[in-house]
Amino acid sequence: MSTPWIQTEKGRRFDLVATSPTQVDIEEIAAALAKICRFNGHSRYFNYDAQHSVIVADMLPPAARAYGLFHDAHEAYVGDLTTPVKDALRQETGGVDAWRAMVARIDAAIFGALGLQWPMPADTARMVKHADLVALATERRDLMADGPWSQDMPPPLPRRIVPWAWDKAMETFLDRVRRLPLPQAPHGALAS
């Protein structure tokens, strides 16, 4: 039996089981995240994972920005499984262990390619989670229909989100990567 893999934007093979940092390409991540819609498309405006990642990273201190920018980068390879879907899987099957294991492998490869510690340090994880929730609260206010919400969130950002086109989302994501203080050059060419 062959190992499950996906074809990436550049036509390369990304192995979903035997994942390694050498398979990670930052430009492919940016291209995919720039075309994946938040909320499974259930928003009033099309808003991309890449823009969400930039919003999260921009809230963080410089040492944590790479973690914020890439906190959802695994979605470039496996898509976005929303929190309510994960909760439903927990109820249906008693857990989402296989999903978590696959995401952890992919996250380890991505952060390894960036030369960053994985799992992320606990204090950084707390900052990223808070920034992610602030971004979510802002997206809810600016992009979602009024209605019930399943979790408590911090106050949204004062500035409103204006959704970007996918090419702007990709270029802005890559611009933020170029500005990161990374311990090693990331895989994948990054044009200046």
Secondary structure: elements and pairs:
Blueprint: E1 5-7, E2 13-15, H1 26-33, H2 49-58, H3 65-69, H4 75-78, H5 83-93, H6 97-113, H7 122-143, H8 166-179
Helix pairs in contact: 1-8, 2-7, 2-8
Please tag this protein with its features:
192 residues; mainly alpha; two-stranded antiparallel ribbon; 2 strands; globular
Short description:
This protein is mainly alpha-helical. It has helices spanning 26-33, 49-58, 65-69, 75-78, 83-93, 97-113, 122-143, 166-179; strands spanning 5-7, 13-15.
What does this 3D model show about the protein?
The protein is mostly helical and 192 residues long. It has eight helices and two strands. The longest helix has 22 residues, at 122-143. The protein is globular. The N and C termini lie far apart (42 Å). The mean pLDDT is 89.
Tally of helical segments: 8
Mean pLDDT: 89
**Strand order, sheet with most strands:** 1-2
The rough form would be described as: globular
Rg result: 16 Å
- First-last Cα distance: 42 Å
- DSSP strand (E) fraction? under 5%
Largest sheet report? 2 strands, antiparallel
**SSE succession:** EEHHHHHHHH
Global structural class: mainly alpha
Q: Show unreliable segments.
A: none
Instruction: List how many beta strands DSSP finds.
Output: 2
Helix content: 40-55%
